[in-house]
Every structure is written in structure tokens, then in C-alpha cells.
């Protein structure tokens, strides 16, 4: 017989930027706000962005991370927004667990 030790990492690396500049038109584009994650993430269950008064300015449900075009483009009802916004997201992992993330993001123009 033999013994095998398995170490399970409980880290859930998900990254949401804290600043972005829409219409930057650079090679590495930073035009959208979305979540980035590794292969342990099944999907982003939802991402909501709120203005300073608590009004919802963006919402997307059930989408894949790492695709900036599925994120927020910094507009609301056709108007270009700027300033600091709060966001809230729930991310679903392959192990069946849903984890909440939140923070703020600055939109530069």
C-alpha cells in the first residue's frame, strides 16, 4: 500500500478591473468592464453596475468570463458615462459553488 496526499486549493481567482477607458482604441483595448477568470469558473451568473445614487446602469446575466465584449461599455441609455461606479457580481464555479464579488470601477473619458 501507499499514501497519497492531495492538497485542494480553495482559491477562487477572479479579477474585475477597477478602472477602464472606453474608446481607447489601443492594441490591448480596455474598452469594456467585465470579469476575468481561470478554467475553474463555469460562468458569471450576473454582473450589475450602479451609479453613485444606486441606479442600475448595466446588467448582464449568465455569460462567460474573459470576453470583454460581453461587459459594460461605459454607457447608459446611449449616453457616455464617467466617474466612479459600484458593481456586484455572482460567479458560478465548476464545483457548484456561487461566490459573490463586489467593488468599484472608475470610467475615464
Topology:
Blueprint: E1 14-15, E2 19-20, E3 36-37, E4 41-50, E5 56-63, E6 75-76, E7 79-80, E8 83-93, E9 98-107
Parallel strand pairs: 2-9
Antiparallel strand pairs: 1-3, 4-5, 4-8, 6-7, 8-9
Number of strands: 9
H/E element sequence: EEEEEEEEE
Class inferred from helices and paired strands: mainly beta
Main sheet record? 5 strands, mixed
Number of helices: 0
Strand content: 35-45%
Average pLDDT confidence is 92
Could you characterize the architecture of this molecule?
- The chain is mainly beta.
- 0% of the residues lie in helices and 45% in strands.
- It has no helices and nine strands.
- It has a five-stranded mixed sheet, with no helix packed on it. The chain has a two-stranded antiparallel sheet with strand order 1-3. The chain has a two-stranded antiparallel ribbon with strand order 6-7.
- It is elongated and about 65 Å long.
- The protein starts with 13 loop residues before the first strand and ends with a strand.
- The relative contact order is 0.28.
